[in-house]
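tokens incoming
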């Protein structure tokens, strides 16, 4: 759906309208947001804009399945960005996850009929930008209201693409054929998904959240197979499995280990009648 929309309407125009729709749903007026929130949120939003630009442009040259599987690696690359920009040391587990994910991406992209293509490379740049975005969020967003901060980021992305749009593509009202993709990505996948994620993460443990986020590439592959008729050969399936394994190793394994230790402490405490 997105591929057809950006071919018909253009990448910058599609992204500009998408994030205008997303920002329009925000419940906060500009008068309630401080100048500091605007400045910091806009700066973090620039990394998000780069991520969406690379990802959406990449869809012109690669399959939705490849795009979804590779994009899922942003949770791994966030640790690399933390180390590169903020000096946070990466554990051995993170390095193993990075190695697994990169090898899986090589198999996924290089084993296709056309080998590695521009779309896969652009999507990898998207992963780097989204990893930086996560690192910036963890560094700067803690002192701000989460919903206001997210609104400022969406608004910043809309402004970036809106300003760039006239210089690179003809400006026109979206045709009727593009609106289903704009509504699905702007109102549902951007604004709606954010509000839903915020609501759910306030009510379920982090381990469950990590498991849910790790299934994103799996659903990308399933919907690519179902809706876009994407088909993977055996080596690509193995590469996809390595990518998902890297995400499980990075996100889920340490949280399950902590949960297990906590359970053992409770059992020990109970036996000793703490």
């Amino acid at each position: 759906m997105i591929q057809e929309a950006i071919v018909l309407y253009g990448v910058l125009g599609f992204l500009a309208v998408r994030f205008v729709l997303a920002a329009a749903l925000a419940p906060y007026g500009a008068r309630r947001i401080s100048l500091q929130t605007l400045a910091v949120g806009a700066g973090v939003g620039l990394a998000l804009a780069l991520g969406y630009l690379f990802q959406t442009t990449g869809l012109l040259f690669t399959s939705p399945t490849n795009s979804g599987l590779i994009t899922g690696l942003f949770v791994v690359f966030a640790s690399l960005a933390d180390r590169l920009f903020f000096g946070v040391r990466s554990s051995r587990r993170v390095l193993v996850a990075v190695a697994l994910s990169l090898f899986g991406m090589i198999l996924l992209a290089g084993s296709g009929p056309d080998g590695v293509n521009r779309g896969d490379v652009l999507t990898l740049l998207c992963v780097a930008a989204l990893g930086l975005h996560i690192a910036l969020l963890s560094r700067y967003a803690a002192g701000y209201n989460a919903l206001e901060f997210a609104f400022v980021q969406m608004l910043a992305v809309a402004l970036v693409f809106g300003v760039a749009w006239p210089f690179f593509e003809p400006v026109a009202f979206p045709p009727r054929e593009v609106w289903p993709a704009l509504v699905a990505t702007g109102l549902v996948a951007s604004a709606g998904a954010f509000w839903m994620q915020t609501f759910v993460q306030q009510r379920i443990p982090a381990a469950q959240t990590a498991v849910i986020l790790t299934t994103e590439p799996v659903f990308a592959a399933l919907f690519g197979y179902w809706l876009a008729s994407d088909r993977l050969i055996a080596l690509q399936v193995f590469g996809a499995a390595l990518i998902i394994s890297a995400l499980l190793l990075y996100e889920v394994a340490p949280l399950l280990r902590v949960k297990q230790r906590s359970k053992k402490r409770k059992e020990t405490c109970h036996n000793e009648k703490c």
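note: Residues 28 and 148 are 7 Å apart (CA to CA).
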